[in-house]
């Protein structure tokens, strides 16, 4: 199954570049069900563009900005329209997880938003309780979201570079025929 996801991710990156990364991370940030795992897409994008900083920077920026924008949209919709995104079948976050996220925010404040965004599996959960039960402004929430998303994507970048360098070493060992078959 990982092979299928990686092939799909590489096809998306090949066709749409950093725009595909932006869209997938924005959907993930908006708590929408995963169309394609964002981590797989990001690592595939890094492998596709190479490890040079100038090539990776747009992919990194697209992921961070997409995730931050998606979370800011959820925050704003919850705050302005008193919406409950967890009532939608596309949003895979249950009430018990939101209660735990709310307790996190009550205890730690905005640093909890940044920390939760840096941890896989909890990304974006604090958008709803923060919007519902606090006086935090949208720009401050977005800034905390951006910090956490940058840390998360930075860790993914390290994985992507390691994978890309591993493919380079494997290509050298197996010869040029392997690279063209990939």
From TrEMBL:
<keyword id="KW-1003">Cell membrane</keyword>
<protein>
    <recommendedName>
        <fullName>SNARE associated golgi family protein</fullName>
    </recommendedName>
</protein>
<keyword id="KW-1133">Transmembrane helix</keyword>
<feature type="transmembrane region" description="Helical">
    <location>
        <begin position="41"/>
        <end position="65"/>
    </location>
</feature>
<keyword id="KW-0812">Transmembrane</keyword>
<dbReference type="GO" id="GO:0005886">
    <property type="term" value="C:plasma membrane"/>
</dbReference>
<feature type="transmembrane region" description="Helical">
    <location>
        <begin position="6"/>
        <end position="29"/>
    </location>
</feature>
<dbReference type="InterPro" id="IPR051311">
    <property type="entry name" value="DedA_domain"/>
</dbReference>
<keyword id="KW-0472">Membrane</keyword>
<feature type="transmembrane region" description="Helical">
    <location>
        <begin position="141"/>
        <end position="167"/>
    </location>
</feature>
């Amino acid at each position: 199954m990982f092979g299928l996801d990686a092939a799909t991710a590489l096809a998306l990156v090949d066709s749409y570049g950093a725009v595909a990364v932006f869209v997938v991370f924005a959907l993930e940030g908006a708590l929408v069900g995963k169309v394609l795992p964002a981590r797989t897409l990001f690592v595939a994008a890094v492998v596709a563009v190479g490890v040079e900083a100038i090539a990776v920077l747009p992919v990194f920026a697209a992921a961070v900005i997409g995730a931050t924008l998606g979370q800011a949209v959820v925050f704003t919709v919850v705050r302005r329209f008193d919406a409950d995104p967890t009532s939608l079948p596309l949003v895979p976050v249950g009430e018990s997880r939101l209660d735990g996220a709310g307790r996190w925010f009550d205890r730690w404040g905005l640093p909890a938003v940044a920390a939760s965004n840096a941890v896989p599996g909890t990304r974006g959960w604090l958008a709803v309780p923060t919007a519902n039960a606090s006086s935090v402004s949208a720009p401050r929430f977005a800034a905390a979201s951006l910090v956490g998303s940058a840390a998360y994507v930075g860790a993914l970048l390290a994985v992507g570079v390691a994978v890309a360098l591993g493919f380079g070493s494997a290509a050298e060992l197996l010869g040029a025929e392997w690279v063209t078959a990939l």
